[in-house]
């Protein structure tokens, strides 16, 4: 990227939205729709601007080139915001998500290996079984004509899938009464969000009821996972066959932890199991829920997905992994839901050193928010960007001139691109195709009643749907 000394800009040259004298823009930043506020400010003040969170000046970038460069120049020039690590470590989470430098590199390798295409293909029977459980649950709703907060079932579905992949434990939280494990996990993301955005760690001095609840949930989760670690260690003892072909992520990590230059001590083992559960749960279940938000308003797309399912497979779910590639329409609907309602629209970073990107000088330690969803809502990248048009993702059917998939950064990018992307797409395609094959979906209430709530990831609030058995003839 060419830079000329003449036109170097610093953060002081950028505009800042008006805020209060002491707190700056903190009040707006605490709102549930902070990602949309940041998006609006990008329209008002330009793709690059600063906000003030109390005394801290933060760079906000909705600029595609700057965002790509920050994502790509990791781990050398940029890192995740150090506050994320602080908050994670305080909760006992030493994970690939908050690790940096060499430590991150060593943790990243076994995590990406556990989630690569070949492994995900091997996990397909798990995804299929959990999808069948989900379908049985939805079937119970059709008889009572109830309107359902479907997000809870999607959370249970993703926890069941990831728990089996992570440590081989068969949960059926979808059909059993809400498992306490799910209750504990659900507390964590909103608290991470509260703490990362808190100007002062008040919970350390005056813990609220929620802080106390979190502490007790973290203890319970730790107990459950350490028991799994103990069981896995016993299984691996003297079992060379299992050591050669570990049957789940935890077993693979335990073998990795025996290597000489390992970074996997007990804490990091625990941390990465929990990382998989946390990272795989909220993101995937929220995306599934947002997809139903659109399908509940567009019966014509439900019908298209159903026709496609009927032409590809005979059972209630795709019969094997290879059939997923033929579910082009389902994939298009999911891509469009991700573009319009990304669950991770903003990411938090920090500069490791003084860096210049495109003539913008970013000083060491500058906090940076990447507003990644802005670019996917620009006319120049997607014609008619506000409209839900899945056809734009099918080359032969795309009705629009502008279509630039690489501007959608829902899974991040560069060397830290989400390693669970493939798994989540397979889970979501299997679930959405199978649901539409059997059920009609209707959104309860007006779409405008359904709000976006950012709690580290964005979930729909007040999303209720009704299911009816489809008239399949
Ligand atoms: C719709 C589903 C998902 C979305 C939108 C999503 C999004 C993201 C994003 C934006 C990041 C940060 C990437 C970056 O810094 O460049 C990330 C990281 C990560 N994700 Fe996902 N994710 C999803 C599903 C999953 C699943 C299913 C798993 C595993 C079971 C997973 C595991 C991880 C891990 C371990 C990281 C940390 C990677 C690192 O720091 O090197 N994700 N994800």
Strand and helix layout:
Layout: H1 26-29, H2 34-45, E1 48-53, E2 56-61, H3 64-72, E3 78-80, H4 82-90, H5 101-114, H6 117-144, H7 151-167, H8 180-196, H9 209-236, H10 240-244, H11 249-256, H12 266-295, H13 299-312, H14 328-340, E4 346-351, E5 355-357, E6 360-362, E7 367-371, H15 421-438, E8 439-443, E9 451-455, E10 457-461, E11 465-469
Parallel strand pairs: 2-7
Antiparallel strand pairs: 1-2, 3-4, 4-7, 5-6, 8-11, 9-10
Helix pairs in contact: 6-7, 6-15, 7-12, 8-9, 9-12, 12-14, 12-15, 13-14, 13-15
Describe the structure.
With 473 residues, this protein is an alpha+beta fold. It has a single domain, classed as Orthogonal Bundle (Cytochrome p450). It contains 15 helices and eleven strands. The strands form four sheets. Strands 1-2-7-4-3 form a five-stranded mixed beta sheet. Helix 6 packs antiparallel against helix 7, helix 12 runs parallel beside helix 15 and helix 13 packs antiparallel against helix 14. 41% of the residues are buried. Bound molecules: protoporphyrin IX containing FE. The site of protoporphyrin IX containing FE has 28 residues, from helix 5, helix 12 and helix 15.
Summarize the main sheet: 5 strands, mixed
State the CATH topology. Cytochrome p450
Distance between the termini: 60 Å
Number of domains: 1
Q: What is the molecular shape?
A: globular
Specify the structural class: alpha+beta
**CATH class wording:** Mainly Alpha
Brief descriptors of the model:
473 residues; alpha+beta; Cytochrome p450; two-stranded antiparallel ribbon; 15 helices; 11 strands; 48% helix; globular; binds protoporphyrin IX containing FE
């Amino acid at each position: 990227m060419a830079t000329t000394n003449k036109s170097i800009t610093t953060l002081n040259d950028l505009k800042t939205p008006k805020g209060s004298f002491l707190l700056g823009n903190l009040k707006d930043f605490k709102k549930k729709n902070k990602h949309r506020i940041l998006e609006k400010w990008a329209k008002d003040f330009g793709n690059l601007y600063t906000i003030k969170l109390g005394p801290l000046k933060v760079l906000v970038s909705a600029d595609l080139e700057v965002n790509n460069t920050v994502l790509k120049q990791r781990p050398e020039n940029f890192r995740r915001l150090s506050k994320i690590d602080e908050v994670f470590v305080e909760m006992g989470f030493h994970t690939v998500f908050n690790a940096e430098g060499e430590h991150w590199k060593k943790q990243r390798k076994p995590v990406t290996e556990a989630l690569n295409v070949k492994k995900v293909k091997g996990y397909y029977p798990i995804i299929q079984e959990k999808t069948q459980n989900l379908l049985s649950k939805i079937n119970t709703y059709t008889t009572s004509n109830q309107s359902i907060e479907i997000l809870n079932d999607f959370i249970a579905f993703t926890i069941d899938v990831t728990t089996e992949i992570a440590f081989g434990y068969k949960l059926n939280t979808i059909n059993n009464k809400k498992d306490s494990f799910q209750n504990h996990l659900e507390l964590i993301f909103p608290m991470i969000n509260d703490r990362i955005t808190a100007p002062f760690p008040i919970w350390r001095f005056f813990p609220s009821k929620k802080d106390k609840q979190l502490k007790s949930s973290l203890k319970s989760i730790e107990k459950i996972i350490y028991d799994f670690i103990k069981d896995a260690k016993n299984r691996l003892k003297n079992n060379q066959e299992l050591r050669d072909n570990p049957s789940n992520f935890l077993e693979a990590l335990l073998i990795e932890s025996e290597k000489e230059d390992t970074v996997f001590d007990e804490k990091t083992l625990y941390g990465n199991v929990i990382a998989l559960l946390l990272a795989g749960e909220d993101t995937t279940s929220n995306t599934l829920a947002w997809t139903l938000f659109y399908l509940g308003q567009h019966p014509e797309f439900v019908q298209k997905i159903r026709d496609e399912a009927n032409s590809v497979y005979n059972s209630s779910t795709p019969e094997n992994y290879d059939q997923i590639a033929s579910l082009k329409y389902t994939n298009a609907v999911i891509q469009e839901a991700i573009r319009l309602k990304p669950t991770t629209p903003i990411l938090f970073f920090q500069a490791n050193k003084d860096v210049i990107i495109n003539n913008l000088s970013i000083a060491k330690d500058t906090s940076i928010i990447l507003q990644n969803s802005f670019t996917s809502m620009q006319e120049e990248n997607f014609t008619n960007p506000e409209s839900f048009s899945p056809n734009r993702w099918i080359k032969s059917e795309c009705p629009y001139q502008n279509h630039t998939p690489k501007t959608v950064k829902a899974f991040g990018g560069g060397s830290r691109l989400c390693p669970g992307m493939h798994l989540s797409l397979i889970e979501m395609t299997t679930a959405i195709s199978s649901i539409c094959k059997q059920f009609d979906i209707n959104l309860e209430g007006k779409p405008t009643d359904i709000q976006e709530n950012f709690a580290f990831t964005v979930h729909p609030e007040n999303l209720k749907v009704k299911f009816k058995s489809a008239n399949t003839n």
